[in-house]
Amino acid sequence: AQKVTQAQTEISVVEKEDVTLDCVYETRDTTYYLFWYKQPPSGELVFLIRRNSFDEQNEISGRYSWNFQKSTSSFNFTITASQVVDSAVYFCALSDASNDYKLSFGAGTTVTVRA
Amino acid sequence: DVKVTQSSRYLVKRTGEKVFLECVQDMDHENMFWYRQDPGLGLRLIYFSYDVKMKEKGDIPEGYSVSREKKERFSLILESASTNQTSMYLCASSGGPGYTFGSGTRLTVV
After folding, report:
1. B42 closest CB neighbour out of A95, A100, A108
2. A97: which residues sit within 8 A by CB, 6+ positions away?
3. What is the pLDDT of residues A80-97, one digit of tens each?
4. Most CB atoms closer than 10 Å: which of A27, A63, A66, B32?
């Protein structure tokens, strides 16, 4: 069975601090996709990144970076030099072939960035 | 840009009412989904559809039904609303791995 665990429920930081969100997943498939979504207070989930299981290269996009490690089944997300606009709920998600590529979500991590 | 539109942002309904939540996507996607979001539980799949008139139960289908008469429209139906169905409902569509979400409908059942 596929499962996504985001152990951190809430994280609160002061602006300009770095923040790392943990995501651990379980799947029996060798082919799968991992995602991060951001949900700002407006409510709409915004796609941030998709990673397939064959690409372990870390990725950086501006102040965002992702660390994918198959050995530990983790796909962690770091926000560098956080800003107030980063305040949101962040969801990690997994889709795999055995589940028809439906997305399974973690419980989410609420990030609050204080000015 | 792919757009997924949910007809209502906020809804307040009475217990026992039949409730329709509408979702429309404009990118000719085959797959559409309804999720429910509750604090601490993340998003849970209610129903999904991979083609017109096709539907599959998700993880928590009880108390819900769906309708997909046209490819672009996927409706979630609460047959007899109950207070435990007070939640945020999110619609999504997909043409491959990964989804595009609507803005959500916050439903309150009183």
Report:
1. A108
2. A29, A31, A32
3. 999 999 999 999 999 887
4. B32
